[in-house]
Design brief:
This protein has 288 residues and is an alpha/beta fold. It contains 12 helices and 9 strands. It is elongated.
């Protein structure tokens, strides 16, 4: 697969040819900071709560995670994996291969395994699981927890078309799910995976300056967050290039033009590019 292919869809539109997610059984092993939002996304897409089973490191942890997203806490990993169609592994990268080794005899042969671990390649995952087993790498970002995120999907060599369609259906409520290559994942990290953190930092800086200028903090929070949301929504819905949209609000000699000139003088554009490049470079280092 040479191109990045976006597969966005209206989750409320009728899709008679799609998989029946109510009949799909999902096991989530490690429903933490990222596994939890992924579980919630799949429930929102149509997986039944009694068919989404969570197994964490302890019974109490499994119960808390299941209650938080509205799923079912499994008594054990073995119980979670029984008859699973999809197995989501949400553990840390340094744990992933050891976990697969531990679970590979328990994972149903026809299940598709989804790894959320950064830096561990499809080849490593497939070699550790077993030859001919279906494996997908998924790189979600944190805004999937509110249905406004992005997920990069990397398809393993044994994933069938039906399984590929199923994975996209499971992430239909995440925001946007795109097919990417393993080489593209590094750019994806900069453009989506880590970008939410950069966006939070920018919003924080703008809010602090609004407070310094005299606005109450609650008002500053509301104005900055809503305006950033509105700007992104305008671009998404209109398809207008950001440069064109920017020019439309930069009146000659006006306040926005003056503020934008200050951004350029302070090197904000270069700083943002450097942050994205640093994230992508670090992703490559973690994979090597």
């Amino acid at each position: 697969m040479d191109d990045t292919t976006a597969q966005t869809q209206d989750p409320d539109a009728a899709q008679p040819s799609g998989p029946d997610l109510a009949a799909v059984t999902v096991a989530v092993i490690g429903a933490g900071n990222m596994g939890g939002p992924v579980a919630a996304t799949m429930l929102d897409a149509g997986v039944r709560p009694d068919r989404l089973r969570i197994a964490n490191t302890s019974a109490d942890s499994s119960r808390r995670a299941a209650e938080q997203v509205g799923a079912t806490a499994a008594d054990s990993r073995q119980d979670a994996l029984a008859d699973a169609d999809v197995v989501v592994l949400g553990v840390k990268p340094y744990q992933i291969l050891d976990l697969i080794t531990e679970l590979r005899d328990l994972i149903p042969a026809d299940a598709v395994m989804i790894s959320l671990a950064a830096g561990t390649t499809l080849a490593q995952l497939e070699d550790t699981l077993a030859a001919g087993r279906a494996v997908v790498r998924a790189m979600p970002n944190t805004p999937i927890s509110v249905g406004e995120g992005a997920v990069g999907l990397m398809r393993g060599s044994s994933v069938t078309d039906a399984q590929h369609q199923l994975i996209h259906a499971l992430f239909a409520r995440a925001g946007v799910a795109v097919d990417i290559t393993e080489e593209q994942v590094h750019a994806f990290i900069g453009a989506a995976g880590s970008l939410a953190g950069f966006a939070f930092a920018i919003i924080e800086a703008m809010t602090e300056e609004a407070v310094r200028q005299g606005l109450r903090r609650d008002l500053a929070d509301s104005l900055v967050q809503q305006t950033m949301r509105g700007a992104a929504t305008m671009l998404l819905e209109s398809g207008v290039h950001p440069a064109v949209a920017k020019a439309g609000v930069c009146s000659p000699g006006g306040t926005t033009a003056e503020g934008y000139a200050a951004l350029e003088r302070e090197g904000v554009r270069a700083g943002l590019a450097a942050a994205m490049d640093a994230a992508a470079r670090r992703s490559r280092e973690l994979t090597s």
